[in-house]
Amino acid sequence: MPSALPPLEKTSHQLLYLIYGNQDVYRREAKFSILTALSQLKPGESLCIRVMTDRAQDYIGWPVETIELDEQTLALWQGENGYTHRRKACAIAHGLTLADKTLFVDTDTLFLKSPHRVFELIEPGKYVMDEFEYDWSYVCKRPDYLKLGRHLHQHGISASNSFKLYNSGLCGVRASDSPLLDASIQLIDEWTQDSFDIHTIEQVAISFAMRGKTVREARKFVHHYYSDKRFFHAMQAHFFDLHGETFDPTLVARCLDVPRVKPVPSPWQRLRIKWKLRNQRKHMKRVGRDLLYGSSAPEHPYYDVCRHGWWESASREIRGWDEAEQKKFFGPNDTHWPKQLPRPSTSADEQKILAFLRQQRAR
Where do the record's region annotations for Disordered lie (predicted)? Predict the structure, then answer.
């Protein structure tokens, strides 16, 4: 694949990130992910980390090599059909020229074990992906996948001769796998030519290109929190507010203070909440659960800053109701706790939740 990127020295292993744009939240994601990778290294171990970015200045002083992306390269990688995630496949393809083994990870990835444990899984004809998500025979029946199904039918794929679909938040490949990435990019261009209904075409294309091969999952070694970003974003913002973004070796140890899972009440508390909401309708149960989960999260300095994540989820659910349902929920005065729901354990939390919901309604 043609590229204007400058050459780098080829290495045996590399941990590869792609990040572009100037949104603080994604920069913090990348930096925190890097810290978690470093925190899992054994004494004396080293790790080549490379960041493909259009803002190399953000990583000055960090123990990474930057590969600078210009507007021309980003436009080339997006392709003529305007599919943003094509850039990921192109980034991996270019990365293959820089190392014998490449482990590409999305920025919303936390390392629970050493990256070298994952590198060990990458062998000739054996790939590593984040995790298995579903089989094509299942997802092909969804309305938003019907158009893609017609393309796959041209390749002889149907529900009866299906293949496995993997989340590509992590992708481990070798330098010899360039034909696989080239095939994936070609499929992306084919499937996005006349518009597209789903935004995971890139990982479907990579999974399709890997069909029939050995694919190993990395979920034992990493936590990809794509569905819980609101909690981890809050914790990461708090972390960098406390310690700053300038790299210091002490950050590696300090990142271990940040929980690797979202704040969830204890099993006993969850059971109590479920019991209290047992007679509510389904949509009311969802709201009540999220409000009470937020107030019942375990005590922890980092969990204190992300209780709003639960309450925000409840607020989104409420905004989806019609006006009559919302008025019934809040009553004539939204300074009082909704009578349909059990109260939080403390009056202080009750007032915090009501203030948060009022703020969300005023938007």
Answer: 329-350
